[in-house]
Here is the input.
Amino acid sequence: MRRLQRENAVLVYSSLLFIEAPQCWRRFFRQGVLRRSDPNLADDRLKAFDTANRLLEDFLKAFECQEVAITKSLMSAASRLVALHDIRAHDALVAALAEDLRVSHIASFDRDFRRLDIDLWDGLIGR
Here is the structure.
């Protein structure tokens, strides 16, 4: 986060972020990254997800953000990228959006982006 802030990064996201995030929270909960404290598993999960959602909102507030709409043409471009590069549909949609906005760098730990002609910016994964 600090590195992105130093670089004055603008975060571009779609509303899909808010449906993808619970998938991450679910995985983190199962791995024990999100703390468990309540004997009732469903209540515990709800509390952990609420905490994770608040942290995501705080993260977004720390940056200049731009929310974009997912259009039919972006979905078609993503479908083409899935077919060409055998990547996941959501990753293809991110790449199609980056291409549409002429964004040359993506900050991600997702290795699927290595298959595309885009610079990964995470400080760990090289091209």
